[in-house]
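Hi X.,

You mentioned you wanted examples for the new student's onboarding notes, showing what a folding record looks like when two proteins sit in one file. Here is a clean example. The first protein comes first, with its sequence line followed by its structure tokens.
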Amino acid sequence: MRTELIVWACVSLLLMAAEMLAPGAFMLWLGFAAAGVFALLLVAPLTPIWQAVAFVLLSLVSVTAYWRLFRKSGPTSDQPLLNRRAEQLVGQVYPLDAAIVDGRGRLKIGDAFWAVEGPDAPVRTQVRIAAVHGMSLKVVLAN
């Protein structure tokens, strides 16, 4: 048996075994590429440079196949804003708890106080939450 066959078989097995040490990585797919080079060497002799080229190309193909076939986005949630409390408030109308002065104020929603940014307005003015900006809510006057 040729030495190159043994080397590529070992590289393939080592890469596949490395996947067990770091699951979720793409070592398995690089192992498949090394196995592909092994299979090519069974069919036709290749110089070391062409073996490296074949490994790179097969690696690109196998990792791309992995990303396209197996790394699809997860199922879409029926409640995409479940853990995004501030974003759930967008579009709702509340009275100001503290006047907006120089663009900053406060409103109370449930048992929590939220910092708001928007046009100056007195206490108890109805404002609509238009957006979330970091930890504060952007508001507009609700007419």
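Then the second protein repeats the pattern, sequence line and then tokens:
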Amino acid sequence: MSAYFTRFALAGFACALVTALAAPASAQTVARKDLSIDGAVTIATTAMADCKAKGYKVSATVVGRNGEVLLQLRGDDTGPHTMENSFKKAFTARTFRIASGEMEKRLKDNPQMGAQYLTGFTTARGALPIMIGEEVIGAAGVSGAPGGDKDEACVKAGIEKVADQLK
């Protein structure tokens, strides 16, 4: 009789264990901060205003956490390439979590780098990642100034305008 109860108890324990392991875990969520459209508008308009004050006609793109376009603004009398180029810069900065111009050095260091074949990739300077701490939540890119360093300086001004919100 005792062996029967032992087997029954072990069978019950095994069944409970299997049920517990097979049961779905509690729903798990990911808490994160994303760039708001208001933040994206402020970054882009500030970057464009900064460039305009310096005499540069530019377009700006702000992308979100997944590289999706949140906002694109085409500046008055800008070249036809500026919209696409500002996007490529922003997309590259978001994808690789670095200033877009850093990709030039990476490509020189590794000419076989596969990233160069990605759609939307560029080595052009003019975009910066938008970060909260160490987390990249988007990127902003500008195109049209006479040099990527000037584009990048305008982007920096835009991101600095919302720095208090990026905490």
